[in-house]
Amino acid sequence: MRFTTRLFLVQLAVVATVLLVCTGAFAVIAVAQVRSAAEKNALNIARSVAATPDVRAAVARWSDDPGTPAAADLVDGPLQATAAAIAGRTDALFVVITDDHGIRLAHPNADRLGETVSTPFDRVLAGAEVVDWEVGTLGRSARAKVPILPPSGGEPVGEVSVGFEEGSVLDDLPAVLLAIGIAALIALGVGIAAGSVLRRRWEKTTLGLQPEELTALVQQQSAVLDGIGDGVLALDENGIVRVASEAAERLLRLDGAVGQPLTALPLPRDLVAAITAGLPLHRVVVGSRVLTVDVHPVRRGGRELGDVVIVRDDTDVAELGEQLSSVQTVTGALRVQRHEFSNRLHVAAGLIDAERVDDARAFLDDLLERGSVATPIAHIERVDDPFLQALLAAKAGEAAAQGVTIEVGEDTLVLGELHRVEDAAAVVGNLVDNAVAAARRGAEPRRVEVGFFGDGDALVVTVADSGPGVPAGRDVFAPSAGPSDDRVRGRGIGLPLSRELARRLGGDVWLIDPGGPAAAASPPSPADPPTGSAPTGAVFAARLPGVLRPPGAAGTPSARPDEETDS
Predict the structure, then answer these.
(1) Distances from the Cα of 395 to the Cαs of 478, 489, 544, in angstroms?
(2) For 166-234, what is the HEC assignment?
């Protein structure tokens, strides 16, 4: 049996039980009220008769007579006539009048006149009023007994007993019980209707699922939400958040999202628009995380129930992609340099084989002066690390194709060997790409100046461009406001990702000088690394702890092999 059916039957049983109890209680109360009304009516009639002067005088006379009254003397007497008239007017079963010895002076049955009453009368002759249900010669009745006092006062000289037949007392009870029964049936019908409505509402709300199915669903939901690293948001058909896993709140930087509309949450506009439209969104930046969002509509029984939003953290993938891209760029540049250097060695070897020693020496001297491989970067010799040289050479080749030249700052000085090349390449590559993109929008000459500085095991990098600078009030490290924002490699991810990479190393990426109109309002800090004669655009800096192996450290020579040191 389905739970809703069981619940409906339980509700019906509860309603029926309550109605039965209430009906019984009302019936008991009704009977008690009818009986009480009969008793009060009998008492009032008895008091009225006992207070009548003629009755008091007649009873006093018969009580003074020491003998027993004869029935013949009573049957046509005033007391019998008075009692009969009162009984006829009030529909009483009987009106009985007795003397002080309980002898009937008036009775509905004339044959009973002159006899002693069949019920006790001692308490009444003692002056008390008695109201009770008793069985007499006329059957069970509700009767009231009131003492009759003599006209001059004193001890009671008789009693008046007025009774109403039990059947006549309860004549109105069937109508009362019928009204109670009708009310009970109406209440039962209302209960059945309300139970049916609640049953249908329950099944509609729970989609027909039974409690055990809901329990299993909650267990499965908890297992799924807590067992995966992806975040999950469940929205109802009105766009209200009904479920938000801890991972979703952490990735989207939310707090207490359940119960709030999606549009009221502090999320990027393009993310809210994509979720509302039911479209996936790739590589959206929320805080310091790069996220991918998928939206899946939920339907059951042809009814739209809302959407489930899956939030995946692609920050690590994006970082690895940036690192891999930088390493591939450097690897390609090194491969080209190795190939060109090999070609030049073949030229030198050919000159020697041809016994053109003077030409070979001149050729080698030229190599020593210009470097092993020609590079479009000015002052590249200021960078000793081969990896950084290769990275700058690769970036310079790409920048030259866009009409931008790259040069090394005159204050560049790095004492140590780069050993965490992937992290350094990702940050430096992003900063250089961002500067090249900015320089393209500036006036001639379009230049980018890069400076490297060693600070123990930390590499400090400054990148300046000749672009228009950063507009006032713009946060270049904030997440992209939409797909049209192309300030960093077309998607607005590079700078926030670079800062995240640097902060994971314990460092940071920051803007030294916004350049352009903001340059006068934001002069470089004296504590910032020098940049030489940099272009007039924006100046960025990065500090990357732990990427350098200082001179003298294990695995790093303290001096170049071809140099001699004085002690």
Answers:
(1) 25, 14, 20
(2) HHHHHHHHHHHHHHHHHHHHHHHHHHHHHHHHHHHHHHHHCCCCCHHHHHHHHHHHHHHHHHCCCEEEE
User: How far from chain centre, in Å, is Cα 102?
Assistant: 85
Q: Where are the beta strands (DSSP E) in 49-120?
A: 94-99, 104-106
Q: Which residues contact residue 72 at a Cβ distance below 8 angstroms, ignoring those fewer than 6 apart?
A: none
- For position 373, what pLDDT does the model report? 52
Neighbours of 445 (CB within 10 A): 11
Any idea of the CA torsion for 323, 326, 331, 337, to the nearest 10 degrees? -160
The dihedrals phi and psi of 295, each to the nearest 5 degrees, come to: -120, 125
68-93 exposure pattern, b = at least 16 Cβ within 10 A, e = fewer = ebebeebeebebbebbbebbeebebb
Residue listed under structure tokens 């692609």? 314
What confidence score (pLDDT) does residue 489 get? 39
pLDDT beneath 50: ranges in the chain? 481-492, 518-534, 556-567
List of residues 6+ apart from 446 with CB closer than 8 A: 403, 404, 405, 439, 440, 466
CA 196 and chain centroid, separation: 30
- Rounded Cα–Cα distance for residues 238 and 223 (Å): 26
